[in-house]
Prior knowledge:
38% of the residues lie in helices and 25% in strands. It is built from 13 helices and 24 strands. Strands 11, 12, 13, 14, 15 and 16 form a 6-stranded antiparallel sheet that branches. Helix 1 packs across helix 10 (441-453) and helix 2 packs across helix 9.
Amino acid sequence: MLYFLLFLGGLxxxxxxxxxxxxxxxxxxxxxxxIGFGPKILGFKRGVTEYxxxxxxxxxxVKFLGSDPDDVIEPxxxxxxxLTTDTWRKVLIVVAGPVFNLILPFLIFxxxxxxxxxxxxxxxxxxxMEGAAWQAGLRPGDRVVGIDNRxxxxxxxxxxxVSGSPGxxxxxxxERDGRPMSFTVTPRPVxxxxxxxxxxxxxxxxxxxxxxxxxxxxxxxxxxxSEVAGILPLDAVVSIxxxxxxxxxxxxxAALAARERAVTFxxxxxxxxxxxxxxxRSVVLxxxxxxxxAGLGDGQAVVQHxxxxxxxxRAGIQPGDRVVALNGRAVTDWAFFLEALGRDPTxxxxxxxxxxxxxxxxxxxxxxxxxxxxxxxxxxxxxxxxATRAVVAPDPIPNQxxxxxxAIQTWDESIGIMVKTVASIGALVTGxxxxxxxxxxxMIYDIASSAGSRGWIPFFEALAWLSVSLGVLNLLPIPVLDxxxxxxxxxxxxxxKPLGPRGRAVLNYIGLALLxxxxxxxxxxxxARKWGSLSQLRPPG
Length: 541
């Protein structure tokens, strides 16, 4: 409840603050600033303005002098009244509320990003052998120092250049073992299919690299020389003869070399919670003899756990399966496999697994069979399968351009939220998205409590999203909303005279009727959604 009150109160306060501040700036008298509707709970008066916290926390308002046509304005003070002042002043006052809502994400994100004093460097971690980076010659451990002769220091800079250049050849300048090298990489165009449902088509570039480097995971055969030497099932190989282990191919080559000479493996048990290697230990393997196999198998992408009723379970994936391909493309890293699945959750894919030495093709869909518009369950589900994965990340480096970084990231995040919000509302209007997906106070309560329980950063990120939604919705041309007032001002400007009390009353009744209908819809959706989630908690009869 505390998170909900902070959440809703913050949104309302900032919206009404916009009306209040601009009214004061243009000389219109403010009689009351209220958070909430109904009778006053707390309040005080300063000058001519009352400041209230009211009983019903589902909105707020700013009451101006002359906002009622029956108010009497002293001669010579017409510009202090809302209805009697100039049209341009009224427009500024009305627009200010939604504009403040649209500004709020910038105020939230800028200090958030400005506080990041260190950032990940542009050092390649894992690279998919099927991706553009590997095909062009880039390798794990390469430090990207420039793209098209423009300096690059941080991971975000590299991602920004790659994402914005789908299908465009880029000249990567990198350092490898202290030597400068250059490679031409053409990012593969990838459509962000998740935006397609709200009518947005966006294609970005991808070269299939990760910041974190995945360590090879090994499975020694029972009774094999590897097991006898001390390598455990699902150990992560950190290094081989003092050099970083990049892929299972490095392990396979070392196992082959162990037939002729002693090879030192540094391995570690993986912490399943953090996906980080634990304490390291050295294992010496070999010399084994020219005809003796070390017995080291690839443990990467070997399924360790499958959740019941998950997409993985419905597809027939079982613990012990090794995922080797997705739609014909080889899977060498579990992270790339999950990323490919999430790229377009609407598709049904063919997953190829090896089970007991036999290759099988399984049909996998992330669609939730229990989902219908407005349901209390997600439309798409997580895979529901887990594989052992160990990763190491490069140490962050000082952020030498904090203002530039904060400005770019704030702009991208804020504009992205606005575009997606407008597209979502458009999708509702056109029927692309069902009205059953709309939510009201109960949904806001759930969002606030869920985000708050995960920390202040998720809480403020959710606040930014809802603030933009509130701002955009208030600009809709519905009477009693800010957008409806703008329409009235436009009509009055064309008629060159204000609407009479009867005309305003009719518009207000229409607006209230529309809002009441909207409230019925969102409350019905909220109740159905909440009832659906509660009914899933009841034991079967």
